[in-house]
């Protein structure tokens, strides 16, 4: 252990710390955009469900754009567009904005599916029992529909977390960018990419494991 | 406040090149999907039917493909393999990366499809004198392909969107070409806006084609 193997030259424990910090940044940008995006997505989903005509004509095509254009292009576009209208955004903020809208566009479909999975008869029953519209929405639709679409939502969360790697294009030093920086310095692409991959795997795998367990429990 | 002058002329001039690049995008996505479907089928079958190292190989492949960012996988094929002295061309990098990713995602879809087919059907086919290969290729796989038709369509859209990562490994598909022109003329926003529109059109064409194909395939 005293004599470092030649394979490890240039890579020291501090770099591991650097990568860990970058992983936290990945986690932070994902948590921020997923939280805001999910709330927005739920609202949009509810709007789409409630008013099929007005909001459907305006909102649905806009959200569709976020799903039909590569995230990479969206990021570059927004990052170059913001200064034109006088916004001075750093890479982190632009990343958060685009990732939020991207999440929202994905969650909208999930939320709408969740609301539609609750049978109309059940909602009518709850209204007949004297619940107001909002009580019905929060105490009947949310628990039942939410349970149905929870795995789909987890799928979106995992997708967004992985796609947050693209923010590195704007120069935000998250996990993948950090590994690139280290590769440039140490010339050890295989080792460092493996570590970065392990970090991503460690972030994502437990959640997907939990989701599949959850799904199995509710399938019974 | 808004003092940016749009210059669309250079974009217009290179528009034919961008359309050409759009075809390259479509081509690489289709190739990756074809490879992904074949490999994904094998992986799903290995995961269901095999024991020991083959099963673990399939499980590892699927979990890595699903739990790490596509960009990371591209970098791995691009730079990571360089450590072994394997230097792939950008085309090969993006093709292997996308196929690897698609195969992992599709394998899980196929697994769900295979599980939806009753085992009795295989037994019956074997009773009728088919061998295992015939039973799978003539009875099971056609049904599975029908079950996973819409997930495959979704995956195809994802493949088109993910092929935009080719820009980051130096492959000149639509995004790569766009970036090339953008850095030549410094008209980043205009070029990427046009690229976004082209991507949108490609995605719509893919979805429309798949709907037409579905109407043709699932008539009865």
Walkthrough of the structure:
Chain A is 79% helix and 0% strand. Chain A has 220 residues and is mostly helical. Chain A has a single domain, classed as MetI-like fold (Orthogonal Bundle), CATH 1.10.3720.10. Chain A starts with 12 loop residues before the first helix and ends with a helix. The model of chain A has no long low-confidence stretch (mean pLDDT 87). With 220 residues, chain B is an all-alpha fold. Chain B has one domain: MetI-like fold. Chain B is built from ten helices and no strands. Chains A and B meet through helix 3, helix 6, helix 7 and helix 8 of A and helix 3, helix 4, helix 8 and helix 10 of B. Chain B: Its main location: membrane. Chain B: Residues 22-207 form the ABC transmembrane type-1 domain. Chain B: Belongs to the binding-protein-dependent transport system permease family. HisMQ subfamily.
CATH architectural designation of chain B? Orthogonal Bundle
| Rg value of chain B | 21 Å
User: What top-tier CATH class of chain A fits best?
Assistant: Mainly Alpha
Tally of helical segments of chain B: 10
What sort of overall outline of chain B do the alpha carbons produce when their principal axes are compared? globular
**Kindly, what is the distance between the CA atoms of the first and last residues of chain B, rounded to a whole number of angstroms?**
60 Å
CATH architecture of chain A: Orthogonal Bundle
Counted by DSSP, the helix tally of chain A is 8
Oligomer: heterodimer
Element-by-element helix/strand order of chain A: HHHHHHHH
Q: Tell me the span between the first and last alpha carbons of chain A.
A: 51 Å
Which two chains touch over the largest interface?
Answer: A-B, 39 and 39 residues
Strand content of chain A: under 5%
Would you tell me the structural class of the helices and strands of chain A?
A: mainly alpha
| Main sheet characteristics of chain A | none
Q: Unreliable segments of chain A (pLDDT under 50, ≥5 consecutive)?
A: none
Average predicted local confidence, pLDDT of chain A: 87
The share of residues in extended strands of chain B comes to: under 5%
